[in-house]
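3.2 Worked example (two chains)
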Amino acid sequence: MVVVKEGNAAITVRKPLFYNPEMEFCRDVSSLAVVSIGAEGGKLNVLDAMCASGIRGIRYAAENSNVASLLLLDSSPDACSLAKKNVKANKIKKAKVVEDEVNHFLFCTPKPNFDLIELDPFGSPAPFLHAACYSLRNKPRAYLSITATDTAVLCGAHSAACLKNYQAHPIDNEFCHELAARILLGKLARTASAFNFGITPLFAISKLHYIKVFVQLDVGAEKAVDSMRSLGYVSHCAKCLNREWRAPMPAHLACPACKSQYEHAGPLWLGQLWSKQTVHEMQTLNHARNYKGKLQIDSLLTLISEELALPPTYFDLHKISKRLGVSAVSPDRVMDALRKSGFRASKTHFQTNCVRTDGKIGDVRSAVKRVLSQPRRA
């Protein structure tokens, strides 16, 4: 048994069980997201549905004044025993630990009163989304914080499993991690709509082996329908790198630019991945905290704040340069060239050496060529 200090919590863990140190950054960012929704003044009853050591839920309660109560849930007796000790050691008030399987608990609890449900399973969260939405069905507004570690499935390495789990086709390409987040959100939107919920993604990241999304659910038939109208497909040409997105799937199966066969991903979420207000709140709150990854979090949030208003997908400059038969170019110089041509452009947190822009592939190619034709500044 060892004691681990993380954020405002100090917990006892039994290595290698019940604690993953690689996920500390994710827990930091998630805790910032939890307190950012406190700007509305509401208190949150939180369910950490797969609590293990309890570190995530305990941190939410210890770090955020808008957490009114905490329920830690796990199907493992050993995990629950450890979580109880950690709750007591951290003096978390209004906290309870329950041993049960997630879906059974969510379906069978007679009067659930959760405002935020944390789903952090091993692998796909898909089997738990229906029960989570069901348990929130009487709330006018609620939140889901979801982690998916089945990135090989979502990113297209196992497309049959993605079709089975998420009812969507992935594409294994340069922007597959963004598609993964959008496929996960598309699955959630379809599930939530059955309970009269529309969804608003507040925050999404891709890092290491996981996708993390933080989503607001609002009740209302019109809101549910609006969410359904935000679903569609991304079509991508692997030859010339052209892409388009729309709902429903484009009528043409060939790329209009080079006539090669399109690859299609979806159905998936085509709406915004981030709330500008939430990201701004998280940036402000991060400055006031002393997380070990504080500088890294600030860099991440700065990147996201720059890309959040731009269209889906981004362009890999290595691929474009290779197809043009030219040397690699600096993303900063390409972005500058795009902006001078009247386009918006930013980097993306999803992938290095990539540019997100409202320009098309031809505009990006032209920007790369202009950069190469200009002498480097001394």
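3.2.1 Second chain
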Amino acid sequence: ATTLEDSWRLRVSSAWVYSIVKNRDVEHFERVMGFLEATYRLLPRLIAPIKHMKIMFGLKTMVWK
């Protein structure tokens, strides 16, 4: 079961990840990728596998440019 504290931590982490992507802070994109992979492993039904792959690919192309 998810506790209130877990929910709070997830929200803070999500906001931090969103800020990194929004500001295109390439230095921290590896952490974003790690967060997305961990979230996908923990909550696989949250997003379709193909959508997850597209998001990850899109982020990787942002870093490589």
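3.3 Remarks
DSSP finds three helices and no strands in the chain.
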